[in-house]
Specification:
11 helices; Metallo-beta-lactamase, Chain A; seven-stranded mixed β-sheet; nine-stranded mixed β-sheet; 353 residues; 25% helix; binds zinc ion
């Protein structure tokens, strides 16, 4: 169902229908209300790449999930009224404190550190300094890094309730319940010990994977705990070490969001991951291209609002005359605004049945 925006313009273009008929068709189409149609009430979005997500508090009953652009790293804020949950905080720099100050009212109820790598916990040190944090969930893994030492010092001096997350646990806060799907124990590599969380809000389901790779995915698949979701935070910054076809087939995301720094040295996201996500029909957004991405939902429909108004990620068109070569520098992912009316680009409204 997410192909809606890329399929709109093309048939008309080929048929050469007069403009008036196109307009009539669009009006009729927009009022159909099929599950694969964007909401006809979604207002046009100004096609600029500078409009930030709204800083107003969410409407009552509306859940907002901010996939914050922290360069190469993860930082996800889940905001429901006066309840705020932060999953990871990116690296120490640029830090997420300034961003959070627009949204966190009172204490930060829950902080989750998926695993002790610096691109996930570095920014949490400043958050612990700037905000009162009620609950901290860790995976219990350790690191010899200075960043980890500083983070644990900040955790220990916070006075928060500290928990180790294990499969089967529930993080209950405000009106939200996060299910801990992983880890079972610390038997994997650092990434594969990542805390993986699912969250359902009404009919809209989310999966937050940290840096879990295929080993962790296999563990969850074997136990049958992997949910079908609308929105997937892609594992490990879009690396090909995560997002196995089996895992993506079960999660079946309509929207996939990877978090990676522009021009990062790891080559994230990897082309294989983008191909695999496209193969399951996901509409792909990345913080390296779209900046901070905010998903809002009332539990029935959801809305994806990237800061940079460009189309979802696709693979570059392959030339039939040029054989594919393993040239990393040419494997740049592309987006295109050419095939889409601007008012479909910024807001993807999907109504669920
Ligand atoms: Zn990472």
């Amino acid at each position: 169902m997410p192909q809606l925006r890329t399929t709109i313009a093309l048939p008309m273009k080929k048929l050469g229908i007069p403009a008036i008929l196109v307009a009539i068709f669009l009006l009729v189409w927009a009022s159909c209300g099929t599950p694969s149609s964007p909401s006809s009430t979604t207002p046009p979005v100004t096609p600029t790449n500078t409009s930030p997500p709204t800083t107003a508090p969410p409407a009552e009953g509306e859940l907002a999930i901010h996939f914050i652009d922290v360069g190469q790293g993860d930082a996800i804020l889940i905001d429901l009224g006066e309840t705020e949950v932060l999953i990871d905080g990116g690296g120490k720099s640029p830090g997420v404190v300034a961003y959070l100050q627009d949204y966190v009212d009172g204490a930060l109820e829950v902080m989750v550190a998926t695993h002790p790598h610096a691109d996930h916990i570095g920014g949490l040190i400043g958050v612990l300094d700037a905000f009162e944090v009620d609950e901290i969930w860790l995976n219990g893994d350790t690191s010899t890094s200075e960043t980890y030492s500083q983070f644990m010092s900040a955790v220990n001096s916070e006075g928060a309730q500290v928990y180790e997350a294990r499969r089967g646990d529930t993080i209950q806060v405000g009106g939200l319940a996060f299910n801990v799907l992983h880890p079972v124990n610390l038997s994997g590599t650092t990434n594969n010990n990542s805390i993986v969380l699912s969250l359902s809000y009404g009919q809209v389901d989310f999966l937050f994977t940290g840096d879990a790779e295929q080993e962790a995915e296999a563990s969850m698949l074997v136990e049958g705990v992997v949910p079908d979701v609308e929105v997937l935070k892609v594992g490990h910054h879009g690396s090909n070490t995560a997002s196995s076809p089996d895992f993506l087939a079960v999660t079946g995301p309509e929207v996939a969001i990877y978090m990676a720094g522009e021009g990062n040295t790891y080559g994230h996201p990897h082309e294989e991951t983008i191909e695999a996500l496209l193969a399951v029909g996901a509409e792909i957004y990345g913080t390296d291209i779209h900046g901070t991405i905010v998903v809002t939902t009332d539990g029935t429909s959801y809305n994806v609002q990237p800061t940079n108004i460009v189309s979802p990620v696709t693979l570059p068109a392959t030339s039939p005359t040029t054989p594919s070569e393993p040239d990393q520098t040419s494997r740049k992912l592309t987006t295109s605004m050419a095939v889409m009316p601007s008012f479909f680009i910024g807001k993807a409204m999907v109504v669920l049945n």
